[in-house]
Design goal:
The chain is built from 11 helices and 4 strands. The chain has helices at about 15-25, 40-45, 65-75, 85-105, 105-110, 115-135, 150-155, 155-165, 180-190, 190-195, 200-215; strands at about 5-10, 30-35, 55-60, 60-65.
């Protein structure tokens, strides 16, 4: 068994967070692709409560939940910092990362919904995005000049959502209403390290279109 193992699915933004954290620290790991429609016995053994990915094993110690895993990676391995060194900035980064996970599932839900429900979700999403828009004033990334915890947490906005929401006819986040976020998404996606570790956009959109069609049938 490898010292570090990651159980995931290729299209998961949460799994990619963990992989990006490991690659930032130049940690070698074994990746095990899961089928969430037919979960393996090992996945159910390692994450019996939530039964979901990502799961990371380090020397047979099991870790779950992407944000917790990212903090663990930052504490265990040397390399570019994922969280800021300053205690206040670390606390602020944790707050924003949790805010993203708490408030922005509405982005995904809006893609699969219709009518009044979709309009309500769009309003909720834009209200949350306004917070992030303001955080980026005068900044290249959320942490300043380098990619950190909040950027990795928000990866699904740049790498997943922008392509997906265009493909289903939504205009939630545009250059006109969120210029700072759109500039951040361009900088983030254009970063050579990030580009190497993001799923193929066309493959991703095709995958979610199939899921949307299945959900509607």
């Amino acid at each position: 068994m490898a010292e570090v193992q990651v159980y995931g699915v290729w299209c998961s933004a949460f799994v990619r967070r963990v992989e990006m954290g490991l690659k930032m620290k130049r940690v070698e790991y074994e990746y095990i692709e899961e089928d969430l429609k037919n979960k393996s016995d090992l996945l159910l053994k390692y994450n019996p409560i939530y039964k979901k990915v990502p799961v990371m094993l380090h020397n047979r110690n099991v870790l779950v939940e992407s944000l917790i895993i990212l903090e663990y990676i930052d504490e265990v391995w040397e390399g570019p910092p994922i969280l800021p060194k300053d205690p206040y900035e670390r606390a602020r980064a944790r707050f924003l990362a949790k805010f993203i996970d708490d408030k922005l599932p509405s982005m995904w839900k809006a893609c699969w919904s219709a009518g009044e429900e979709r309009e309500k979700l769009i309003v909720e999403t834009r209200e949350a995005l306004k917070i992030l828009e303001n955080e980026l004033k005068g900044k290249k990334f959320f942490g300043g000049d380098s990619i950190g915890l909040v950027d990795i947490t928000a990866n699904f906005i740049a790498g997943w959502f922008l392509g997906l929401h265009e493909s289903v006819g939504l205009q939630i986040m545009t250059q006109e209403n969120f210029p700072n976020l759109m500039k951040w998404a361009e900088e983030y996606s254009g970063n050579s390290f990030i580009k190497e570790n993001m799923p193929d956009k066309e493959k991703l959109v095709a995958h979610y279109k199939i899921l949307k069609t299945g959900a509607q049938s």
